[in-house]
């Protein structure tokens, strides 16, 4: 139940959603429109963003934006201000990509840069660009989409874990900085959600299969995640850890961090087909390749 005085930021919002062309981002856009809002749907794929806009039950605007590129996020803010006739009231830094299946030392810097460029720098660009607008308006909200990976630190998911842990830390920092400003901050940390993230990313075949199975068995729908998160944001909740498995990992990691980490390593070694040191690419000491 909401008290009469509590502002429901997600109702009638002027919202910007990144990665709005699929999955959780699309579900956020649709739910905000259902709540009477206007949505700028940004995605690296204009076609996907336009598809989302056509599905909206209200006004929406599609725009191409690669969140890894600072100038494109700055252009996104200008576009939103122009369309809304003022600053947005809700910004959802959702765009992200999946990466996994290789242990540290076999990932390669190209993949590290690619994943962190989108999953971490994309959110940094969004916060650095939009926070001043929200702070000046003295109201509104930011929702950053992290993941349970941000605290679970599962083996062979290094770049994903690091990016999402960064998003959690950035959100916590922001929440402290913006407390009392009228601007809410929420960070979403789900485990599996039924979307395209496992097929569209850079994930080894074995890990893609495993992720898809877990998604089918335990995954929530993106619609359920969007509704839960927006309601939590209205209540000014900082953390949204929507699923039981995520809550269990969160608690165990906090109470027994060393045991948790050793257990995760053991489980990983027991899984069939895991990358072993023998299966890693050979590195010649003389040539470095
Ligand atoms: N699906 C899950 O199980 C799960 C779990 C935890 C967290 N997440 C996070 O949820 C967020 C949304 O992912 P999803 O599951 O809906 O995946 P998805 O692949 O269905 O959607 C991601 C969208 O982001 C867009 N995108 C990719 N790179 C981009 C870029 N550089 N700039 C702008 N847009 C870009 C894609 O085109 C796509 O439309 C991501 O941050 C992901 O890490 C997903």
From TrEMBL:
Keywords: Oxidoreductase. InterPro entries: NAD(P)-bd_dom_sf, Sc_DH/Rdtase_CS, SDR_fam. PROSITE patterns: ADH_SHORT. SUPFAM superfamilies: NAD(P)-binding Rossmann-fold domains. It comes from the Bacteria. Belongs to the short-chain dehydrogenases/reductases (SDR) family. This is NAD(P)-dependent dehydrogenase (Short-subunit alcohol dehydrogenase family).
């Amino acid at each position: 139940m909401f008290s009469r005085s509590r502002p429901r930021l997600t109702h009638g919002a002027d919202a910007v959603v990144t990665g709005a062309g699929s999955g959780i981002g699309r579900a956020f856009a649709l739910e905000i429109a259902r709540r009477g809002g206007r949505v700028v749907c940004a995605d690296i794929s204009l076609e996907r963003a336009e598809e989302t806009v056509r599905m909206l039950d209200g006004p929406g605007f599609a725009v191409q934006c690669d969140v890894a590129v600072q100038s494109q996020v700055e252009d996104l803010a200008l576009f939103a201000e122009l369309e809304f006739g003022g600053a947005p009231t809700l910004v959802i830094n959702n765009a992200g990509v999946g990466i996994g299946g290789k242990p540290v030392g076999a990932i390669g810097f190209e993949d590290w840069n690619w994943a962190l460029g989108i999953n971490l720098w994309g959110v940094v660009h969004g916060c650095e660009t939009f926070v001043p607008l929200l702070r000046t308006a003295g109201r509104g909200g930011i929702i950053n989409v992290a993941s349970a990976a941000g605290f679970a630190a599962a083996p062979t998911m290094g770049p994903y874990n690091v990016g999402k842990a960064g998003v959690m830390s950035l959100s916590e920092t922001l929440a402290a900085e913006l407390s009392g400003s009228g601007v809410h901050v929420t960070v979403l940390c789900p485990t599996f959600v039924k979307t395209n993230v496992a097929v569209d990313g850079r994930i080894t075949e074995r890990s893609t299969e495993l992720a898809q199975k877990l998604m089918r068995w335990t995954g929530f729908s993106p619609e359920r995640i969007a509704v839960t998160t927006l309601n939590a944001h209205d209540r000014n909740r900082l953390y949204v850890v929507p699923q039981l498995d995520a809550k269990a990992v969160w608690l165990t990691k906090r109470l027994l961090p060393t045991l948790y980490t050793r257990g995760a390593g053991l489980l990983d070694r027991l899984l069939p087909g895991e990358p072993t040191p023998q299966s890693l690419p050979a590195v010649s000491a003389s040539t470095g390749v």
